[in-house]
Amino acid sequence: MIRLSGDLRGAEATRKKKKKKEKEGVTVVETVDLESPNVSLRELSRVSNVDSVPPPPPLDSPPLFSPPSLQDLASDKSALLSLRSSLGGRTFLWDTKQTSPCNWTGVSCDSDRPPSQRSNRNAPVRSRQLLRPPAALPPGNRFSGEIPAVLFSLSNLVRLDLGDNGFSGEISSGFKNLTRLKTLFLENNKLSGPLVDMGLGLDQFNVSNNLLNGSIPKSFQRFDSDSFLGTSLCGKPLGVCNNEGTVPSQPISVGNIPGSDGKRERGKLSGGAIAGIVIGCVVAFFVVVMVLMALFGNKKGSERTRDVDLGRTIKQLDIESPGEKAAVEAATESGYEAAVTGNAEVNGSGTTRKLVFFGNATKVFELEDLLRASAEVLGKGTFGTAYKAVLDAATMVAVKRLKDVTMADREFKEKIEVVGAMDHENLVPLRAYYYSGDEKLLVYDFMPMGSLSALLHGNKGAGRSPLDWEVRSRIALGAARGLDYLHSQDPLSSHGNVKSSNILLTNSHDARVSDFGLAQLVGSSTTTTNRVTGYRAPEVTDPRRVSQKADVYSFGVVLLELLTGKAPSNSVMNEEGMDLARWVHSVGREAWRSEVFDSELMSLETVVEGEMEEMLQLGIECTEQHPDKRPVMVEVVRRIQELRQSGSDQVL
Ligand SMILES: Nc1ncnc2c1ncn2[C@@H]1O[C@H](COP(=O)(O)OP(=O)(O)OP(=O)(O)O)[C@@H](O)[C@H]1O
Question: How far is the CA of 400 from the centre of ligand 1 (A)?
Fold first, then answer.
């Protein structure tokens, strides 16, 4: 159950309103707490581009409470609607016309809650914890599924508490977007997979009692071991990792049992028990080392034999026995290699599997090279996990490991051949693929500058150079050309998943569209995941059947994103909870300058308002509700070219 607390409505709220008046339209996302039934959610609606986060109140200053204003209530409403929608909930029991959401089913409001602090959090307590509910309240909600992606667009978020829920899936790389985050509590959930380095300057962090495994990235090693108890993570501050990147034995604590009532009462074992465990670990370690040595000896022998007997190069991996597979997995230190090696090599039929390259590309590496390359996780998307693999100083590729591909070998190959045949300077080329029963890998050129989404909504901190109009409009033109090329192949061909994270950038900020053709390869359960919030055209019901006009709609949202600097996944553009497209449509032309255009753009000397207005008009036409009213992609390209041309003529 969600309850709204009035805890930010005191002196803190007053101070912020004053600051807001000083900086028109500027607000700050500060706290999101989904652990407690008392949730202050109004902050979800506060997204902006302030230069600095306001300083927290002193630790010992008592919070003051005052009745909520109408503006606060409207903001609470939109925050609740946004949260509800991001969690896949329905709002038919909520009368959104009511001024206050306090009467909505499942929502109750407290305006006089005293401050408290959590006793079990190990890191230093910072001021925001004064705003937390009393510890005596029953902890934990029952939120489940993946952590809502909408949270990753709240780039000014300072504190996020999702502890004591049922969240599952991997910890998303989307946390990287929360560049101001200081507190992240994810304990007591069902989060799995590795803990990736988020590059955040956190003061407080807790992922204890989850299903996480692998080694603890360096940036998290400064936190106390309590932050990782009850997981299978290893490395400092927990036990050293063995070769498989898992902790040899669980930390000694009552608190490492997920779901245990005693998880916050740290129990200590006797000296004898500890000595026994240590000796056991040492013996187990030597046994593992000896088994690995034996397995490696066999593997080398069998590869040599194959080389001679079958005439294959030893680069062609053909590991047939589960023992050999285990050895390779155990030997690797790279999570990526451990993750893909086994499945890629064991194909069930006993035949050698190879990477299949497209076009006339000279084959520069083999599957084994790829699997042995040092790699890092780039992120987890709708279709699987993406990795960056460095084969050598000159060869870097992005490898996408597809999930939920259920189609047969032949059908997959037919479809992927079509994708591989696409050849345009504004597309990310698919270089090769690998298919086996258990594993499907796609190999792309690695795009060094990342995605447009990261560029627009990622690091907003000091030191970031502003993205000027020339670069933004060039990206728009490049992406439009890439899409136009896809549409020109066949009247029915479409991208199906146009969004700013699928527009990647070269070193010179030229746009390359990625992920085309993938929606047709994966199962419906994958594509129906609502990761395209804000981009999907209203008429689309089956994400595997997206028309060209629906692509135009999604591209129009990207144009609006470029112009406003706002992420469409943050659907809270006003108290009605509109998405980006509907919000821009609702603002009159006279207010474009003050309300719509990204203030970062407007602050630059190079601002070209005429061009920006023309581009905004185009974005609005692309995002018309009715597909027939939207332009076709070739027309979009022509108009962007013209408006850029007229801008440069004026400069001349
Ligand atoms: N070829 C590439 N070069 C560089 N980065 C890439 C490449 N392909 C993907 N990425 C990055 O990897 C991350 C995950 O990408 P992926 O395409 O799997 O998911 P997504 O774009 O977030 O969502 P979706 O799967 O719905 O398209 C993103 O941050 C993306 O920018």
Answer: 8
